[in-house]
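Review form for a predicted model. The reviewer records the input and the model, then writes brief findings.
Reviewer: anonymous (R2)
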Amino acid sequence: MNSEFFSQALSQFLQHKLAWSLVLVTVALLARSVLVLLFRRSSWPRQDIRRRVHTVHNFTNLLMVIGLFAIWVSELRNFALSIAAFSVAIVIALRDVVACLVGGLYQASMRSFTIGDWVKIGDQFGEVIDNNWLSTTLLEIDPHGLGNGYTGTTLYVPNNAFFTQPVKNFNFMRRYIEHSFTIVRENKGENPFAIKPYITERVLEHCESFKEVAERYCKLIESRMGVDLAGTEPKIKFSTSELGHNVLTITLFCPREEATDIEQKVTEDFYRFWYGKADDQPTEHAPVAI
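Model under review:
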């Protein structure tokens, strides 16, 4: 008796579309939680974990949408027919959502970036940590800073920005960058080119430790992107400012983390050449009576 009652109750429960919807959503969320937990406890690199978690999230969301649509397709058809008079208003109200969905599909087909890449979308620059149907999440990076340059700000960019803003992928420039800086000095009648042999020697000395690695990385970028880069040799250019001051511009292909340090060393060499080493000499101080 109890078994027959249970069977009838179960069959009636399963005949309801709402029950099937609850079962589908529960199973999908449970499977996603288990997979995400296993991924986070694994020993894979952080970026690989992010990619797998991102894939699981999007795949389970897709399964839930397809499943719910299949369950409620007849009701949705009737509902669509009943609101035909309001279709224009609905399209206008949901145009931004539809644009985001189409932008997500566009990005997925173009494969302009993936999880972990450094990208610039319009004026927003950061590392991609998540990408779903509606938006892309970035960890903001200071575009004018060096090193890792994370600002601690999380950016949520709607996917419809892919149709109106350019997308730049800086993933190849995460390790090595082409760093340019200028040094300005008042013209006091000396020939500014007198420093060129000295500063060239000093720049090459500062870049000697990573020269071979930089050349290999430059060749890797050229082979991956199919372009010819300017090379890894430092470039030194002299010019003048609007005020008639001498301007020395130096361009280096160097590790991102070392760019600021090399710039400071070259600047120190520049001023040491023109103003001597008087400041480098230690001075003796008389003992102070207490």
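Findings: Confidence is low (pLDDT under 50) at residues 278-290.
Further findings: DSSP finds ten helices and eight strands in the chain.
Recommendation: see findings above.
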